[in-house]
Amino acid sequence: xxxxxxxxxxxxxxxxxxxxxxxxxxxxxxxxxxxxxxxxxxxxxxxxxxxxxxxxxxxxxxxxxxxxxxxxxxxxxxxxxxxxxxxxxxxxxxxxxxxxxxxxxxxxxxxxxxxxxxxxxxxxxxxxxxxxxxxxxxxxxxxxxxxxxxxxxxxxxxxxxxxxxxxxxxxxxxxxxxxxxxxxxxxxxxxxxxxxxxxxxxxxxxxxxxxxxxxxxxxxxxxxxxxxxxxxxxxxxxxxxxxxxxxxxxxxxxxxxxxxxxxxxxxxxxxxxxxxxxxxxxxxxxxxxxxxxxxxxxxxxxxxxxxxxxxxxxxxxxxxxxxxxxxxxxxxxxxxxxxxxxxxxxxxxxxxxx
Length: 354
What we know:
This protein is mainly alpha-helical and 354 residues long. The chain has one domain: ABC transporter involved in vitamin B12 uptake, BtuC (Orthogonal Bundle). Helices cover 68% and strands 5% of the residues. It has 14 helices and four strands. The mean pLDDT is 86.
């Protein structure tokens, strides 16, 4: 019950917020709350990687962009040339290819959103598996630099590729009918259903991750975080655990990218930028490296404020400042901070340096 009750409270709060926005006629807030939920999935996956496996990643925006861009490309590119081929006929027979009208009224053949979602998430997981093997052998700032390089590669690819829209990104991305009567899209008529769908996905992801960290696998991950050499000496297969968590975290980021791209109907290069990855790391640090609940809570607050435009043009500067402050005063997260102890620790360090 101690594990189920907080999840039930989360779902209760989700319903309460939706009811309040309906009573106060402010349902437009649900748009930002839905986007916040999808960003929360990225952050929770990164929290699992950093806080439990002890592996830092500055390239998670790249995995998010992989999912979003691939799903957007496959659902907007015209595959009509395959219509007259046997392959195209077979794909249409099993509903992997579907037809719709574009902005200009022309009928195009595109990959079904369910198929594009599976392909996009699988591709991101495959890249994480290929890259994670050699990269996760690195430690500390070497690992951070390697994952940063991966993120930069993805950013430059989407920025310089015509098929991905270059600096303009992709637009006119159709909705994603995940269930009968539920479509992931930005239409106002779908606002409430999209809100509940997004937070249901967050709740399910959180439940699965809490079960994971409280299992034998979670204990192995905490052992790796505490001391990788000691964990290895006790028989923990550290390379396998680190790689699997890295792949899982990348897949969650890609899935969030797919869903948010369909919800917004567009995606741009900013989603793959280095600052996007820094924001994710900053939010994990604020919530607490090994606290899924803290990460989700602080991530929801900060992302909501950012999406509502409270930080204005200083958005990136605010997140950079937050990261510096947290590292100085609250390395365990803001929810565990003790103000006087943090100030005393900072000044004691300064005296030791002098």
